[in-house]
Amino acid sequence: MRVLLVEDDDSIAEPLAEGLSRYGIRTDRVGTGAEALSAPPGDFVLLDLGLPDIDGIDVCRRLRQVSDVPIIMLTARGDETDRVLGLEIGADDYLPKPFSTRELVARMRAVGRRMRPAPPREPAPTTALGPLTIDDRTREAFLSGTPLALTPKEYQLLVLLAADPGAVVDRRRILETVWEPNFFGPGKTLDFHVATLRRKLGDPRWIENRRGVGFRLVVPG
Ligand code: CA
What we know:
Elements: E1 2-6, H1 10-21, E2 26-30, H2 33-38, E3 44-48, H3 56-66, E4 71-75, H4 80-88, E5 93-96, H5 101-115, E6 126-129, E7 132-135, E8 140-143, E9 146-147, H6 152-162, E10 169-170, H7 171-179, H8 189-201, E11 207-210, E12 214-217
Parallel strand pairs: 1-2, 1-3, 3-4, 4-5
Antiparallel strand pairs: 6-7, 7-8, 8-9, 10-12, 11-12
């Protein structure tokens, strides 16, 4: 982790940077508000409110306008107005001076936990049939983890058959679902696609032909 320490007082900044390094935290230190606004904010900003050029509250506000970086205000001021104002304009926490490095690191961890992004969404609906996996989100099918190079029609045909494995899907329904209602193309269109799909699946037994009726998907045993 890398923090931007904005602190004009050497007697605070130097031991603090050294203390943070013992926690594996690298510190880039600047001593003015102007420098703070032009420096890369890193993973965390530790911001003294009493700076020689720009008020720390203004620095905080301007940092927040351009970045979501977590900000902890370091304040020596007895007046709580600045702390409240700082939190209102987007600082994540404050720590009154004097404080120990340990206390600061604990605050940083607490802020980091609050900022942790929401857990990833539920996995997309995936159909798994033996070694065959169909990921409906990416519209990809895999056989033993290897992607199958399917055409859109082959993919749709596979999805339709895999929706109810073992059940016979009649030819008319396949044509109307994968192609279009009232499909009157060449009579061999469906058989042609079944043949190419079977070849890509590497085993003709995946798709069983019920002559005159339709097709069904079966995991080869
Ligand atoms: Ca100061």
